[in-house]
Recover the amino acids of this structure.
């Protein structure tokens, strides 16, 4: 959704593929993905990938990228640890993407297996934190 | 000090303080165990296994944390993507859903703090000294079954991810502050073209890769 709003065509498959470090349609994609993989998986040197990212997008933006990695490591734990279901509208809106991107293989999918969404519920991620 | 650093400092202080149902000493113990999960043999063996249930063994209790509490912290820290309802039900039966939820929240918060330090190339923070005092022990009135493993705020206007820790308001307050400063930026979250150094698509790209690597369905 943010890609569309910014006139970008995002390669979601590439974004989700842990082995892919390259352009996915977002400025500085390769540097962002390399940094994320280094922090998450220990693939690549964190200091080197952070320096490369800072050279591409600046120090402040790099700090924000580090903060995003950090907070999503928390978000996955509260989401998976409390067993929340997908919000109804997001469940409906993401059916095709979840299947094509093989996201339904994740264990947490079981939490939403019995969802029967009602209409008129938020359908986008930007409505989730209000 | 940046707002991110300030939020990290505030969260560190909150973890060292008495929480909802855990003392400051117990919350710091959970932080210590979260770190230990990185190298703990049982945790790593479970991570490597096709199914974590295929690995026998258990975590012993300590002076601060019971054996089920240790299990919650270690599994949540080391392998969150493969937690199941039956596993959670077993732990909740042993320690109660409030303590279970608080341990999930504490593990998540300290993971955020430690992961940020690592990403920035900084040394691990020393564990803070626990503050004295008793837990608040407040059970919110507006929580119930909304389909999650633990009770959460009832009502159609709040998204599920925003109410994960609503059962434990003290811990939830520290958590929500971290989310706001590290990612959602208050009302700006609705703005797909926000004016921050990291553009919205760049932020979502990092978020997407990070959640995928953690195999988070939500």
């Amino acid at each position: 959704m943010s890609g569309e709003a910014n006139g970008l065509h995002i390669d979601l498959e590439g974004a989700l593929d842990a082995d892919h470090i390259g352009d996915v349609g977002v400025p500085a994609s390769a540097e962002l993905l390399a940094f994320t993989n280094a922090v998450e998986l220990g693939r690549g040197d964190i200091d080197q990938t952070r320096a490369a990212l800072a050279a591409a997008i600046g120090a402040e933006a790099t700090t924000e990228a580090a903060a995003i990695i950090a907070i999503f490591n928390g978000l996955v734990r509260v989401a998976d640890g409390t067993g929340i279901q997908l919000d109804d509208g997001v469940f409906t809106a993401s059916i095709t993407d979840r299947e094509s991107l093989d996201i339904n293989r994740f264990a947490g999918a079981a939490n939403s297996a019995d969802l029967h969404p009602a209409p008129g519920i938020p359908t986008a991620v930007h409505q989730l934190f209000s | 000090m940046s707002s991110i650093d300030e939020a990290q400092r505030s969260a560190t202080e909150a973890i060292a303080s008495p929480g909802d149902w855990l003392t400051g000493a117990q919350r710091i113990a959970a932080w210590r165990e979260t770190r230990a999960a990185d190298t703990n043999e049982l945790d790593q063996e479970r991570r490597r296994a096709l199914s974590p249930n295929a690995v026998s063994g258990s975590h012993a209790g300590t002076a601060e944390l019971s054996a089920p509490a240790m299990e919650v912290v270690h599994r949540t820290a080391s392998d969150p993507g493969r937690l199941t309802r039956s596993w959670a039900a077993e732990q909740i039966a042993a320690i109660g859903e409030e303590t279970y939820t608080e341990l999930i929240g504490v593990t998540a918060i300290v993971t955020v703090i430690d992961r940020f330090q690592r990403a920035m190339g900084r040394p691990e923070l020393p564990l803070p000294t626990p503050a004295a005092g008793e837990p608040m022990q407040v059970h919110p009135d507006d929580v119930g079954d909304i389909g999650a493993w633990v009770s959460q705020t009832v009502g159609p206007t709040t998204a599920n991810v925003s109410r994960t820790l609503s059962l434990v308001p003290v811990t939830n307050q520290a958590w929500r502050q971290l989310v706001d400063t590290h990612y959602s930026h208050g009302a700006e979250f609705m703005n797909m073209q926000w004016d921050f150094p990291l553009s919205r698509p760049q932020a979502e790209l990092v978020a997407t890769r990070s959640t995928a690597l953690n195999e988070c369905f939500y």
About this structure: Chain A has a mean pLDDT of 82.
